[in-house]
Amino acid sequence: MQGNDILSSVQNRVMLYIRKYKMIQPGQKIVVGVSGGPDSSALLHVLMSLRGKLDAELIVAHVEHGMRAQQSVEDAQYVVSMAQRMGLSVYVKHCDVPSYAKEHGLSQEQAGRIIRYDFFRQICRYRGCNSIAVAHNKDDNAETILLHILRGSGLDGLVGIRPVRGDIIRPLLDVSRTDIEAYCAAAGMNPRRDYTNNDPSYMRNRIRLKLIPFLSQNFNPNIVDSLVRMSHILSDDNEFLSMCVEEAFKRSVHIDDDIAVLHIPDFKTLHKALQRRLLRYIISKLKGDADSIEYLHIEQLMAYIEQGCVGQKLTLPADIMAEHGNDKVYIYLQCAVRIMSEPFCYTISVPGDTYVKNGQAVLSSCIIDKSDITDYNSNVSVAYMDADKVHFPIYIRNRRPGDRFMPIGSNGHKKLKEYFIDEKIPRIYRDSIPLIASDHEILWVIGHRLSDTCKVNESTRRVLRLTYKTTGYNE
Amino acid sequence: MQGNDILSSVQNRVMLYIRKYKMIQPGQKIVVGVSGGPDSSALLHVLMSLRGKLDAELIVAHVEHGMRAQQSVEDAQYVVSMAQRMGLSVYVKHCDVPSYAKEHGLSQEQAGRIIRYDFFRQICRYRGCNSIAVAHNKDDNAETILLHILRGSGLDGLVGIRPVRGDIIRPLLDVSRTDIEAYCAAAGMNPRRDYTNNDPSYMRNRIRLKLIPFLSQNFNPNIVDSLVRMSHILSDDNEFLSMCVEEAFKRSVHIDDDIAVLHIPDFKTLHKALQRRLLRYIISKLKGDADSIEYLHIEQLMAYIEQGCVGQKLTLPADIMAEHGNDKVYIYLQCAVRIMSEPFCYTISVPGDTYVKNGQAVLSSCIIDKSDITDYNSNVSVAYMDADKVHFPIYIRNRRPGDRFMPIGSNGHKKLKEYFIDEKIPRIYRDSIPLIASDHEILWVIGHRLSDTCKVNESTRRVLRLTYKTTGYNE
C-alpha cells in the first residue's frame, strides 16, 4: 500500500470502529494516553486526523515512569513536542514506578498500569473529559487471549481486551501492529522504542516474540485474526451469561450490612454455570473484584453451599467467609463483619439524642405520658418502657458475655445467647445488633423484642420512649 | 510410583470418573474399541480389572485399517490374542481406509473415524450393548482444545472432548498419557505403536510433538491440566447456553415440511449470543450438523434476518437457503424443497382412493346427496363440490404456469400466482401445495380455498366429496 493509502485506510477503519462501539460522541473531550511508542503515537495521529469528523477535543497525557533513565525523559520530551506541534494541551506526570511497585508489593507492570490509569482519570476529571483513549492493538488482544489460555482462564479471560470498558476506549483495537508501523512510517513519525518490550522475562513478551511467530509458522498464518475472531464470538456469550447472572443475583441474593445473603433454594434452581458465576459476582460486589479467587475456591464454595450445615464456616482467600444459616448462606468479608462487631457502648441521655458509632445511628429518648403513646408495637425501631421500672443509667451497646434478657411475654430470664439461638438470629449478626441495657439486664433487643421487666401496663404512669434511627452515614 | 501403585491408582481414578459421569450402570454391556495402542490396551485392561465392581460385560471391537500393511495385520492379531487371553468376545473388521477416503472425498483420518464408529455401533446393536468405550486421554483432550483455538473456534470447540456423548463413553479422559504408559509397563503389556502418530503432516501430531512441549517449556509446565481445567469451566457455560437455545427454539421456531419457520419478532427479543447459536442449531436440525457453516455465514444470516425483505433469498453453503416472508424467515435445505416441489399429477378415481407421491397422501372421493353434507366448511381437508358443474376428469397435482382460479366468493378468474400473492402464501410453499384441477381450471387449493365455479348452492343435486389426508409415510 502507498503511504497515503495506508493513512486513509487506517483512519477509515478506526472511524468505523469508533462508531460501531459508540466510543466518542460529538462534542466530547477525550484524554489520549500517549507513551510515545508507535501504537500511541499512531493513535494520537489518527484521532487528530478524525478530530473534525468526530467533533471531539483531544487532551494528551503522558506518564514518565522513571524506569529507563535518560530514555524515559526523552520519551516525555517526544510526546510533549508532538502534542505542542498539534496544538494540544499535554499533561506529564513524573514518577518512580520501581519504588511504587516495591512499596505496594506489585510487579512493575502492575504498578505502571495503576499509576497511568490513576493519572489519566485525574486529568479526565480535572479537564471535564468523557473518556480515556488508549492504544491497544489487535496483536495486543491476541497476546492477552493467549496469556489467559496459557493460565487456564474461564470465559472472562478468553474474551480478551474489550473495545470499551467503563471510561476506557480503545480505537486501535482492530488494527494490526504491522499496519500501525506502516502508518507511523507513512506519517513520517519516528516514534520512541521501549526496549524492555524485548525482555523475555515478561510472559507477555515471550508470547509476542516467541509463541505467536511459532504458531503462525507451524499452524495458522492468520493466528492473530483467528484468536480475535474467537474472542468476538465468546464475548457475546460472556455478555449474555453476565446478564443472566445479574438477573439471578436480583432474584436470589440481597446485600445487607455488607453481608451477602444467598437464598439456597433459589440458588439450587440455577444451572451450575450460573451458580459458579453468581458466587464470583457476589464476591466482586463485596470486594470490588474477585481476582484472588480461583476456580478451586469457587468449587469449595459450591460444595460448602451444597453440603455445609448451620454454624459451620468456610474461610476463603482475600478475607472472604461463608456461613450457613438454615436456607441461607451468608457471604462476607471478615474485616467488614469485624468492624460491625467491634464493641461499642454509649450512655443514653434522657431526654435527648445519643449518637452511636460516629453518627451511623441516633437514639432519641424522652419521657411522655402514657396517654401519649400513639403507635404501640407498630414499629420495630420504637420502644415504650415503664420509666419507673427502668434502672438508670441505661446504655446502647452490643452484646457482652453473660448478658441476660427476659423477652416480653416469657416467664423468666435467659441468656441473651439462648434468645438469639431460639430466634434463629444468624451468628454473624449477633455482635452487631444494638441493645438497650441497664447495668443489670437487657431492656430491648433493637429491631426484635422488649424486656418483660419494664413493659408498660395498667399501673404505668411515666413512659420512656426510645427511637432508634440509622442515618446511613458511615465515615 | 511402584508398579502396583500405578495400577491401582489409575484403576481407582477411572472408577471415580465412570461414576461421576454415570458412564456405566450395573448389568450393562459395553463395546470397547481397541486399536492395540497404549491408550486402548490400557483402557481394556482397566475396564477388565473393574468389571466385577461395575458389573459390566465387555466386548472387544477392532478395525484393521489396511493402512500400514503387515503392521496393521499384526495390530489385529495383538488385539485378538489380548481379548482371548481375557476370555472376551472380539470382533474385527478388515477394511481399506485409503480407498474409502478417496471414494468419499475425505481425509484418511476422517474416513478411519467414520468406519470405526460405524463398526462399533454395528457390534453395539448386534450384541445389544449400551455404549461404546473409547480410549481418549487427557493429553488428547488438551490437543483437541488447542486445535480448536488455533482454528479460531467458538465455545463449542473450546469445551474439547466430552466424557460422554450419546452412546460414546471415554473412561480414560482424565488420565494423562504419561500415566497410561506407566500403567502399560506396570501391567507387563507391550502395546502396538502406530508410527503415523509421528507424522508431522497431521496438525494434531504437530500439536502433540511440537506445540505442547514448547508451551510447557516456555510458559506453563502444567499446560495440559490448565487447558483441561479451562474446558471444564467452559463446558458448563456451554451446556447452559445450549439449554437456553433449546428453549428459544421451542419459543420462536417451528419446523414444518423440512422448512424451519423462524418468527422474527421473537428472534429479535433474544440476546445476540443466543441468536447466533439458534441459527446454528436450526441448521443442524435441518442438516444433521452445522459443520460447513462458519462464523461468517452466521453473520450473513443475522444481517439478512435484520435487513432482508420479502421474496429476497439468501444462499449459504451446504445447500442452505433463507427466505423472508413478512414477520418470518424460512430456512431450509434447497434439496428438500426441490423434492417437495417436484411436479406431480394423478388422475382422481371417482369414487375411490387416489394415492399421491408414493403414498405420502391419499385423496378419497365419492358422490353423495346434498342432504348428506355434515361438516360443511368445518375442515380444510374436506371439500364439497357441485358434481354437475365439475368437468371430469379431475386431477390432483401441484401448480403449473398459467393456472387460473376463481376463489369462492370472488367475481372472476385470476392467475393462481396472484391468488398466492394476495393470500401471502410464502413462495417456498407454492410449488408443494396440492391442487384439485380440471383441464380448465383449479377447483380447490387444498388447505385453502374452493373455486366459485363448482360451489354447492340451492340448485345442487349431486355432491362430489373430496377428502385429503397426509399419511406421514415417506419412502
TrEMBL record, chains A, B:
Return the Pfam families for the record.
Answer: ATP_bind_3, TilS, TilS_C
Residues annotated as binding ATP are 35-40
The enzyme's first-digit EC class, named in words, is ligase
Tell me where on the tree of life, at the top rank, the source sits: Bacteria
Q: Name one GO cellular component term.
A: cytoplasm
Q: Which SUPFAM superfamilies match?
A: Adenine nucleotide alpha hydrolases-like, MesJ substrate recognition domain-like, PheT/TilS domain
Its annotated compartments are:
Cytoplasm
Q: What CDD domains does the record point to? A: TilS_N
Q: tRNA processing as a keyword?
A: yes
Q: What is its EC number?
A: 6.3.4.19
Q: Quote the catalytic activity from the record.
A: cytidine(34) in tRNA(Ile2) + L-lysine + ATP = lysidine(34) in tRNA(Ile2) + AMP + diphosphate + H(+)
Q: Which family does the similarity line name? A: Belongs to the tRNA(Ile)-lysidine synthase family.
Swiss-Prot/TrEMBL domain comment: The N-terminal region contains the highly conserved SGGXDS motif, predicted to be a P-loop motif involved in ATP binding.
| Name of the featured protein | tRNA(Ile)-lysidine synthase
Q: Which organism is it from?
A: Mahella australiensis (strain DSM 15567 / CIP 107919 / 50-1 BON)
The beginning of the lineage is: Bacteria, Bacillati, Bacillota, Clostridia, Thermoanaerobacterales
Which gene is this protein's source?
A: tilS
